[in-house]
């Protein structure tokens, strides 16, 4: 199953609404990078509001996607990480140190604009 | 035979109570008993003795007078030792009394008569224990039940107080922490912090540790974890209320709090929070100007 990637002006919006398994995650990584390349987007918001479970592999993929997109010139903001997910990640020792985060999509877009202005 | 024994004890209750009170009074020398009037102590002793006899007489029923008596003592805050002490003395008094009266007792007409000879002492002891032990158990369970109740209530109160979250402004929330933080509480703090951030849509959370007496590596670790989790869900965390001695401990322990901003007081932290959410405090000077103008115009009119 593929995760839809929506384009809005210069931004790409992704709302993950399925259980992320390893295959979907890798597929998503490829799709997103391809889309950044084809659309020339400068910002990406990945919304994780409906994601209840994140294991260490998914967390690594998400971290990688952020770094890779950065390399291609697109800033990524993760939004809507659930408290339970945050606690799990911290317990697993995954701090996603350099990844910008925001509470919801709206604030994610504001944050993205701020980051791009700098 | 047991029935005869019981009847003897019940028939002579007055004498046993007299012996019992005499003995109990000797034991009641502690500070608690000195704070009571002699009359109150006397009355309670008498009530206790009556309750015991009624308990023995009626055996096991749902609500014995002893239960009611124990409840009353619990409410009045009497120590458990009063009851256990009383029961022990009672056991001794009864045994002493029966041994004393043994020669006068006539068991020959009893239903299940058997010859005891000189070995009657263990038998008497056993019988008396059979009456007294259930009463002791009942009293102790009554007391411990009330304690457990209190402990569970206090634990609930503590839980309610342990992690409050105050949304002071749109997007700014404060969590004041007071008292020692252990692992269990830290978990609750983290949970309520994250849920609160989502619920109040807080962009900035201030964790106030003014009321935390000691910050060791464990507490610092928990606070750092909470702050990281807050960052992951897309909010920012400011640690405020760091007292000089806490700053010293943190540095001496080699704890790195560099990843998120820290401030010495809630006031400063709040200002930083306002800056982070693009707001500032503006003092309203218009009113003062208005008053000055008014006074000036008054002066002018007087001059004219």
UniProtKB/TrEMBL annotation, chain A:
InterPro entries: Bact_StressResp_Reg (IPR051932), STAS_dom (IPR002645), STAS_dom_sf (IPR036513). Residues 1-112 form the STAS domain. PROSITE patterns: STAS (PS50801). Pfam families: STAS. This is RsbT antagonist protein RsbS.
Automatic annotation (TrEMBL), chain B:
Residues 162-273 form the STAS domain. Keywords: Phosphoprotein. It holds the Pfam family STAS. This is RsbT co-antagonist protein RsbR.
């Amino acid at each position: 199953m593929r995760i839809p990637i929506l384009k809005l002006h210069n931004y790409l919006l992704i709302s993950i609404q399925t259980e992320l398994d390893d295959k979907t995650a890798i597929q998503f990584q490829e799709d997103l990078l391809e889309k950044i390349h084809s659309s020339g987007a400068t910002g990406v918001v990945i919304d994780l509001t409906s994601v209840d479970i994140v294991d260490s592999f998914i967390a690594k993929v998400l971290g990688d996607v952020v770094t890779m997109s950065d390399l291609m010139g697109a800033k990524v903001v993760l939004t809507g990480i659930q408290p339970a997910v945050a606690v799990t990640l911290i317990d697993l020792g995954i701090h996603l140190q350099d990844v910008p985060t925001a509470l919801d999509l709206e604030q994610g877009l504001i944050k993205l604009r701020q980051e791009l202005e700098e | 035979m047991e029935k005869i024994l019981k009847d003897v004890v019940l028939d002579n209750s007055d004498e046993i109570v007299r012996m019992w009170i005499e003995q109990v009074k000797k034991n009641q020398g502690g500070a608690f008993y000195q704070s009571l009037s002699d009359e109150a102590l006397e009355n309670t002793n008498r009530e206790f003795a009556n309750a015991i006899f009624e308990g023995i007489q009626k055996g096991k029923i749902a609500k014995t007078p002893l239960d009611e008596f124990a409840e009353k003592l619990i409410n009045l805050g009497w120590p458990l030792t009063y009851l256990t002490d009383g029961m022990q003395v009672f056991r001794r008094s009864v045994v002493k009394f029966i041994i004393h009266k043994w020669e006068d007792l006539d068991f020959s007409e009893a239903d299940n008569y058997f010859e005891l000879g000189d070995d009657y002492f263990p038998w008497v002891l056993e019988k008396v224990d059979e009456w007294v032990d259930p009463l002791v158990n009942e009293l102790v369970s009554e007391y411990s039940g009330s304690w457990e109740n209190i402990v569970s209530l206090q634990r609930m109160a503590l839980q309610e107080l342990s992690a409050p979250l105050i949304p002071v402004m749109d997007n700014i929330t404060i969590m004041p922490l007071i008292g020692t933080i252990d692992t269990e509480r830290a978990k609750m703090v983290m949970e309520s912090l994250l849920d609160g951030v989502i619920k109040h849509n807080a962009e900035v959370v201030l964790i106030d540790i003014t009321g935390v007496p000691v910050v060791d590596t464990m507490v610092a670790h928990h606070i750092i974890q909470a702050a990281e989790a807050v960052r992951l869900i897309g909010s920012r965390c400011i640690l405020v209320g760091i007292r000089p001695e806490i700053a010293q401990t943190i540095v001496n322990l080699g704890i790195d709090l560099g990843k998120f901003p820290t401030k010495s007081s809630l006031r400063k932290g709040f200002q930083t929070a306002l800056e982070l959410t693009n707001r500032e405090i503006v003092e309203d000077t218009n009113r003062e100007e208005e008053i000055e103008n008014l006074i000036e115009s008054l002066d002018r009119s007087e001059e004219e």
